[in-house]
Write a structure and sequence with these properties.
The chain is an alpha/beta fold. It has helices spanning 14-26, 37-46, 64-73, 93-99, 112-121, and strands spanning 6-10, 30-34, 50-56, 81-86, 104-107.
Length: 123
């Protein structure tokens, strides 16, 4: 792989971060993580190399929908690719995430093959 793709995982569950990070690193991605939306936004602002954010939609304090709003309203971050990653898999949840500004929707438990396909299609 000529250029390492940097992915930021924002999730309040360390087990999700651990599992996703292990898989993505094994596939050649540079992976960073944040355990809160505010930490993730700071990392995103300070690292212009982050190409894609995997954003948990159900977090305390600031949820994924609010975080997406901040990203999309910030001129420097608005073009960042954001994948909504959520356990919410009811009818209409995918559409709600996409309407909120997500580029893609991935339900938990994460289908790794689908995630890798989506990540590679954005690089």
């Amino acid at each position: 792989m000529s250029e390492q793709k940097t992915v930021l995982i924002i999730d309040d569950d360390s087990r999700n971060i651990f599992a996703l990070k292990a898989v993505l690193k094994a596939k050649g991605f540079d992976v960073q993580s944040a355990s809160s939306a505010n930490e993730g936004l700071t990392m995103l602002r300070n690292n212009k190399g982050i190409k894609i954010v995997l954003l948990d939609m159900m977090m305390p304090d600031m949820d994924g929908y609010e975080t997406l709003g901040v990203i999309r309203s910030d001129q420097e971050l608005a073009g960042t690719k954001v994948f909504a990653v959520t356990a919410q898999a009811m009818m209409g949840d995918r559409e709600k995430c996409l309407e909120a500004g997500a580029n893609e929707y991935v339900s938990k438990p994460v289908d790794v093959d689908l995630l890798l396909h989506l990540l590679n299609s954005y690089n």
